[in-house]
Amino acid sequence: MSQLVIGLLLFLGVHSLGYLAPAWRAQQRARLGEGAWKGLYALASVAGFALLVWGFSLARPESAVLWVAPAGMRHGTALLMVLAFILLVAAYVPGTHLRQALGHPMLVATKLWALGHLLANGRVVDVVLFGAFLAWAIFGYAISRRRDRASGTRYPARGWSRDALAVVIGVLAWGAFAHVGHQWLIGVSPLG
């Protein structure tokens, strides 16, 4: 489990620099240059992600079971994942009402993803992985919204067609991932 924890610390730590040390992050970007900073950021992110995936796969078979989710929980998690995919897409489609209302739809998507997976998976390793992402997303969202309010940042909507696009792409992406991608990447079919 140590590889998982180190991977989480590295991956979530890198992604927390803007929250925890924005001035230091800005100094490093200026000192190294935009390209070098992005390269180091990407390298650390990939290394952290690889470690957490490897650590999760090592710890999963021997992890103690804390609870067994009821069979119907799979459907609740699937619903949360549909919403998460829609919000993930809305983070990249400019001018949606979803972004206007939420400010940071990717962080809300991460919260839904982590919560859904916590509800459906009750091993210690699941609690460590999904609990860490849930805590990080809650923390990041609270800080991001507080900064938006303090700076007067707004996310204006430009029409419902953008929301419709986010919904259509999100549902299609969820369908592809739920029916093919999850089994291929994770080794588990979420829909049975």
In short:
This protein is 78% helix and 0% strand.
Characterization of this structure:
With 192 residues, the protein is an all-alpha fold. It folds into 2 domains: 1-62; 64-192, no CATH class. It contains 9 helices and no strands. The chain has helices at residues 2-14, 17-20, 22-32, 34-59, 73-90, 97-102, 105-120, 124-151, 160-186. α1 (2-14) packs antiparallel against α4 (34-59) and α5 crosses α9. The mean pLDDT is 93.
Main sheet makeup: none
DSSP summary, beta strand count = 0
**Relative strand content:** under 5%
Number of helices: 9
Number of domains: 2
The N- and C-terminal alpha carbons lie at a distance of 27 Å
Mean pLDDT across every amino acid position = 93
Based on CA inertia axes, which overall geometry fits? globular
